[in-house]
Amino acid sequence: MTPSGTYRVQVRPDFPLSATADLADYLADLGVSHLYTAPLLTSTPGSEHGYDVVDHSKVNPAIGGWDGLRALSQALKNAGLNLVVDIVPNHAGVAVPHANPTWWDVLRRGQESEFSDFYDIDWSRGRLLIPVLADDPDALDQLKIEDGELRYYDKRFPIAEGTGEGTAREVHERQHYELVNWTRGDSELNYRRFFAIVDLAGLRVEDPRVFDATHAEILRWHREGIVDGIRVDHPDGLRDPGAYLDRLHEAAPGAWLVIEKILEPGEEMPDWPVAGTTGYDSLAEVGGVFVDPSTEAFFDTLDRHLTGSERSWQDLVHEAKLTVATTLLAAELARMARLVPEIEAAPRALAELAACFPVYRSYLPYGSRHLAKARSEAGRRRPQLIPVLDQLTARLRNPADELAVRFQQFTGAVMAKGVEDTAFYRYTRFTARNEVGNDPAKFGVTPDEFHEANDERHRKWPDAMTTLSTHDTKRSEDVRARLAVLAEVPGDWTEVVRRWVRVAPLSDPALAHLIWQAAVGAWPLERERLQAYALKAAREAATGTTWQHPDEAFETALREMVDKMYDDPALHRELTDFAASITPPGWSNSLGQKLVQLTMPGVPDVYQGTELWDYSLVDPDNRRPVDFAQRRELLARIDDGWLPPVDDTGAAKLLVTSRTMRLRRQRPELFTSYRPAFADGRVGEHALAFDRGGVVAVATRLPVGLSRHGGWGDTTLSLDGHSWLEVFTNTSYGGNKLQVSELLRTYPVALLVKET
């Protein structure tokens, strides 16, 4: 069953399955058809996200176990809802070895373990390296033997049978694993990781035995009717994503399958047996169409003034990806290089190819053109490597070559760490566009481009997920909507931010610009939240400080800069006033992009809490508790006939969300086609509208510019002569032409249903 709409809940120990079950009636009232949860299998003790599964055979007892899942399923069914669950096939959690029975057995028995081939380990390198020791040459002196185990402070490790005699160091030397300095993880690790996270070890689900062992429980949920749909986390890390998805599709017939595949702008997905992606492509299009593309030059000039740099986005990305490939992912690079020992320059050339790779990865033979493009660009940047590049690409084109297989897994990690987790924090001219799945160099999206993309989505992937916020977005949809207003007031923004960086200086001006944008985008917010965001952003950017080697002086200066926003009365007042000035047009953008996302082709997802205004920043900020009692109360008032104003309660967004989601669930026949609708008049370009086959969505674009023109004036929307009911205000309209000023009198959005 394809959902009409989903609602994402981050099930976790402090919001377990029982609390989630209590939401069933609210979600049904909201209008969704499916609850969409974070991973539910047993994860690392204390995990707040669930993506570090340690036991694939059971529901996480920390969130309620099997009884909790069964109760949730019953509550959903009683409310007429179904369940979509997130699964993690690429990696498992190994931070707490004794919590993961298969990993514990591998540590205890090495290659003789029945699970030694569950994990992607290079056993040719000798013992399995575990990077947990302090950066101290005498760290091993802290090892102890307790209860038949090796202990390093609070970490526990098994002792192989017959090897427990002698000192702790002597016992350690006899194990199938070697505890090493934590700094050696990036360069010497001999097991594949999720990106650069040593606590997440890569699984070999290409092996049918591993697939069966890690999916049996989830597939049982599907067979028993508990789960309707499956969201697949990070398929790009797998050895052969296409073969994996074929197997999953076969094992779960009829399941709605969506995958966390991040497509670069213009990239097409292979023809896999899935409904589509989880929606980052739609996020980029929806966010972009509410940005004024005509002011790009203002932001280029401001960026050059603030940073003194004219480096392009492309060059910045190349630099970040090359650094990631040769440092954070050096162990994976070295593993590939060992497959071509005859080529001395292989590490440099492979890193260069990965840095030039234009998308996350290829799926040979599909996507071989991306390799050709990377080879061309790498040759342009490093002409001295051309002979080596040609040698390597000859092998990298062959899907059966182990080098080609591992290179495809490598490029995705390089892209994610180099772009999402580094370049997005360095390229800060206009951060409303610094989002997963988007190219920040593309300042905005024109209405024609938006309609073209949606026509293609309707034809090719009509059941894919669409989204505006996820647990992985860099800032929430409402922060981006408010920041989009800056593109309409570039002069005002230039004036205040140039003054602010003088009042509260920072030695990294690009990072400072990022933080000022975060501040106005989410203001007012607690000091602690902005401090935490600033620190994470600085360490991700890795220009003034890093996660591996924090710079105390820089981080102190950063804290002082943020503190000044709160402690300097004049600065605090000006920041508050400026944020207030862009908040109302930001509300208009928020309602517009929400309506568009909920009505465009695809299955709309609502991230927890975002049915009201939600000014969250990057995780863990976007995983904060949600006040569902407030949302229930406001929805009840709306259902009693209250038409909420567009104000700081956010209830207008709840109105738009609930009425639209209910319509999609109750009358799916109205959403079976896609046709742009155009407004006539002097300011017609400020209306974004489309007809889904019986329902027409209308949203306001660029509200500041519209206000400067004096409003809608004589602008009209041409329809087909039927009478129409506007869903949000329950107002009827008739005739061939509707006055937009009348239609959008109450709200900056409208949803028209053809009356029969």
Describe the structure.
With 756 residues, the chain is α/β, with parallel strands linked by helices. Among the domains are: 6-90 and 205-278, Alpha-Beta Barrel (TIM Barrel), CATH 3.20.20.80; 97-202, Maltooligosyl trehalose synthase, domain 2; 294-429, no CATH class; 487-581, Arc Repressor Mutant, subunit A, CATH 1.10.10.470. It is 42% helix and 15% strand. It contains 27 helices and 25 strands. The strands form 6 sheets. The protein has an 8-stranded parallel β-sheet. Strands 19, 20, 21, 22, 23, 24 and 25 form a 7-stranded antiparallel β-sheet that branches. Strands 6-13-12 form a 3-stranded antiparallel β-sheet, with no helix packed on it. Helix 21 packs antiparallel against helix 22 and helix 23 packs parallel to helix 25 (651-666). The longest helix has 31 residues, at 569-599. The chain is globular and about 90 Å long.
| Number of β-strand runs | 25
Mean pLDDT: 97
Number of helices: 27
Q: Going by CATH, what is the homologous superfamily of the domain at 6-90 and 205-278? A: Glycosidases
What key attributes describe this structure?
25 strands, 756 residues, 27 helices, seven-stranded antiparallel sheet, eight-stranded parallel sheet, globular, Maltooligosyl trehalose synthase, domain 2, GH13_cat_dom, TIM Barrel, alpha/beta
